[in-house]
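During data preparation, a discrete fold description was generated, as reproduced here:
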Amino acid sequence: MDKIINDPARLGRVAVVMGGHSTERAISLNSGSAVLQALLHDGVEAVALDPAESHWIDVLRAGSFDRVFNMLHGKGGEDGVLQGLLESLGIPYTGSGVLASALSMDKLRTKQCWQGVGLPTPRWFVLRSPDDLVACADTLGFPLIVKPATEGSSIGISRADDLAELEQAWQLACQHDGEIFAEAWVTGAEYTAAVLKTEALPLIRLETPRRFYDYEAKYRSDSTRYHCPSGLDARQEQNLKELALASCQALGVTGWGRVDIMLSADGAPWLIEVNTVPGMTDHSLVPMAARAYGLSFAELVWHILETSL
């Protein structure tokens, strides 16, 4: 993958936006710090900016920034809010625009869009009150997984194997904002496809002894296994890459992102979600896929920054 620009001076002054107020603040700070160090190492004039600090918008407006590297995970940074602010200020930024960010942050709207264009995603049932739990169980059966529609990093997500666990999962999800839905459980292998510019990078197969790939498995556990190469044959891998690119196109996702896919025991692929500002920590998947592609962390960061051009 060729760089568009080689001279760091041509990229100008860059604000690396990280932290914020969402439930993913700690992860965002880790990701943003790693990105900031990579940019500084490559000679880019980069400055950290945290929306949790007062007057940060005044700093952004007055800082003569040429572009923003968005490392703000979750609400406020991954849902179109930051993108809308930057559009109004006329500051270029990395990654997807307002609409694609808002759609992708909402897992329920994401699934509705995919369904509308005929892409495969597991059946779901919206849970608006405890009265919906029995109907959900009758419709989807068990096991199933319950999700808050607008949280990331598997926050508030849990599996239910019976009606009692479904009620517990509902209560957990209710601790977060936004709509809640249950999704039919897919028994099979889990893959993730990092997308950079117009390419899908090598797939990663995820393996965890936990009930599913939850927050603990993503960020804390040493028992999670990441397989890259994924173990799929060339045709299967290419098919999933093309599906990942199609899933991004359906939502308008551009620049970079990460698509999570389940492959059921019968070989059928199922789209789960898209992350438009994926993690860039030492446990993160996009840097892992980039390494398999032949890109160092610094090169990956540079290419992502180029998506602001």
